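User: Hey, quick favor. My workstation is busy. Could you predict this chain's structure for me?
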Amino acid sequence: MITETLAMSRVSARWVPRLLMADQEENRVKASRQFLQSYQREGDTFLDRIITTDESWFYYLDPETKSQSSVWKHTSSPPPKKARVTKSVGKHMFILFMDWKGMLLTHAVPKEETVNADYYCKVSNFFNFI
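Assistant: No problem, here it is.
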């Protein structure tokens, strides 16, 4: 009844990176235009001054997924068996520093360290990025 009479269908929400307020969107567009203008004026020398960073967790063990372990088999052969493994025996956080040419630095964050603006400043100053 819902689909035929009411002409409704079930859909999922589209994922977007951030839900921004109108002034935040305007600021992002303004900054992007300034970035493009600087690049048009200076070319690749402008890009040489930009360093970006991100942090990521790396797992000691990343087991094969169910789809990765699938195999073709004949109907008369038994299904393959595989022991269940845990997701990981541990993980470690790294901070990655990159420029437009590639990776500059991979920094292992000490355990129990909080990664915030102060920590980023400390690491980037230590490696003379700023």
